[in-house]
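User: Run a structure prediction on this.
Assistant: Running it now.
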Amino acid sequence: MNTADMNTIAINTLAETDEVLEFRQIDDQSIEVIRHLVQACRDGEHGYQAAAQQLEVTDPLHAELMEFSVDRGHCAAELEMALAELGVSSDSSGSITGALHRGWINLRQALATKEHNAILAECIRGEESAVNQYDQASLSSMPGGLAGLVQKQAREIAGVLARIKSLASADSMVSK
């Protein structure tokens, strides 16, 4: 890789314990991987918010979906901050087509039914897409602090996926 393909950067590592100033190099491909993760997080943030807004505020699922939305927004913000510390724009605009490919394709249809099972099934689909994107990102070569952040978020998203699957399973038992 030549120097034109590399961004020499000074980053403030987003370690879970201490913030350590490190000098690292990150290639353009890794920057794009992080940008895609930012957009996947924003898609999840908006998807969960849209799903929650279709439910009554008193519905326990409403609060949980809003919490997932806030968490996903926090993940996006962490990634955007990491890119900013690298001196790179997150460029997280994205598109409807991109959101469709990232797993939130049938959410609008599921929302029309306002049925928990349909909504949760689409949330599962969206989370599985996010998990796949994080799995792919983990194959990229990134500075340690950034790789650690991606791994931490991957674990969080996998946990949300497990929780949603648990909610869907419990909901299907109740509706039988």
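Strands lie at 6-12, 21-27.
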